[in-house]
Amino acid sequence: MWNWYINHTVLVFIFLHCVQSSFKLGTTDYTHRLYVDNDEHYHLSWQFDDKEIVFKVLVNTTGHVGFGFSPNGTMAGADVVIGEIKNGQTSFKDYHGLSNGTLVEDIFANWMLLSADQMSNRTKLVFKRQLITDDPNDIDITSDTTRIIWAYGEETFDVNSFVVGGYRSLHLLQVARPNVAVLEDGEKLFITMNKLSLPSQATTYLCKDFELPTYQQKMHIIQISPVVTKGNELIVHHMLLYSCQKNRLKRKLGEVHSCYDENLPDIWEKCPMVVFGWAIGGSQFPLPEHVGIPIDVSSDPVTFLLEIHYDNPGEKSGILDSSGFELIVTPAHRKFDGAMIEIGQIPFDPAFRYIQMIPPYQRQFKSNSVCLSKCLYEDFPPKDETVVMKIFAVLLHAHLIAKQIVLHHYRNGKEIENIASDKNYDFNYQEMVFLNKEIEILRGDDLKVECVYNSMERSGFTWGGLSTSDEMCLAYVMYYPRMRTTNCLSAIGVDDADWINYHLHPSNLWNFRKHEIASKFEQTVNGVGINSSLLTYCSNGINTTVHYQPAGNIFNILRYDQTPRPTIMPIRIIDAIQKAGSGVAKLHWRSQEFLFLGEFLFYLIML
Hints:
Blueprint: E1 3-5, E2 32-35, E3 42-48, E4 52-59, E5 64-69, E6 79-86, E7 89-97, E8 103-105, E9 112-119, E10 122-130, E11 146-153, E12 166-170, E13 187-192, E14 196-197, E15 203-211, E16 219-227, E17 236-244, E18 256-258, H1 266-269, E19 273-279, E20 285-286, E21 291-295, E22 303-311, E23 320-321, E24 324-331, E25 336-337, E26 339-345, E27 357-358, E28 365-371, E29 387-398, E30 402-411, E31 414-422, E32 433-442, E33 446-453, E34 462-463, E35 473-480, E36 487-494, H2 497-504, H3 515-525, E37 532-539, E38 543-549, H4 555-558, H5 571-580, E39 584-588, H6 592-606
């Protein structure tokens, strides 16, 4: 059952004000702070402007201190600085790592030491660097994920025996998070598992629902924090929090069930809206001061559903888990109701087996999904308003072989800007990232999620699915004002069974080493080509609206350098579309009609 209490004590939060390019770097006004190690021996602070970044490290040692960046968390290709204070003399040198991990001192020293000090057996170093140095031995600091490496020791630094202490992925150039004001009328709610015994299997999705306290007025969630059981940090892969329609639930609350058990369809029927998503590596999420996630007592929901994906590749037994979320809730003082929408590939369903296919031996294989504007028309504001929503934060989500994820923004068929982008994606670090500015989505705008995968180490196909070894391509978007729409996903249909069977046959997998074959396959499974077409659908969790879209109509959004050709559809599929009316079929989620949707997409794939 739910656990909650009103916190009358003073809640202390780190105040992180927005970074301004005009401040004087090198002062004590660090905007980001954290321990990089679990033992809390190495503390890192930093601040930045549009040209340079300043770091302060405070480390429990009187010996050497190392800090730097790495492409993969090792010394190979790393950009490292080593500092130490011995007998009152300070040494501070710039190094880079060779492919074999050996450190070599740089010819050009691009790190600048600002101050160095030792006190109470701790070493403090303050130093800075340009974001872009144009030095081939340096790693550029961008808005993408950066893997920092760190080390320290009591002994004098020796280049021949130096080893990395650890690494951690961070968004170094993320805008500082809002400050959460201390409100006396606030309370904490804990939505967590309770010493749940996990099964000894590689992939598990477990769900538990919670009844909230009885409120007499509308409330706002103003901060959401992950609660991860100590020792389970690598097992709790991601968590989702849904709002539910309590009056429609017909079973006992507080029980734990498998989330995708077909014998329990009401879990998804009655819990339609994703309130928040968290993934491994993420941290506390305070909402902007003008936005709150509503708990509206005048309507229904007053129940939450917690979903947790447990990743246990070693299939260990005896694991107990009490992970979940801590919410800070206050009366609704804020101006706007915020919400989350899920955009991307349909991640799973037995009928959608061929929705996402990634062939082996690919260094860069793209997978695109679109959220077309007409999918959202039902929930658009009145016609005299042009701004549909304002996006303020995004979590990009995929699995092990994903290397890049971009959320594109199109207007009149032309890309105007990326809403969110990570060209150095790390599966073990998936953070809800605040945008540097709010992005307005106007009536008629389209969105596209593009993932790039590296399947060079795989000898068979990778499918879209729930397992960590499967893949996903999703963007969880935080925005305001709230709409009813919770999902805007897409699916690809391939209309040639012989073509599918040929490429899937084990004897033909080696052909994907040929660029022309891999390129043609990539285009087809992304909805461009004579053998493929694209469907998008939007859902509010209860009703789903499906749209058929010929490839030629979305060519500019999919951005392939090839003249589109008309998609040939089987006669009975065309009939089904016409019967649905203007290419749109309205279906009830997980109802008998939903079986038609599965068959509909399955026919598109297999015929």
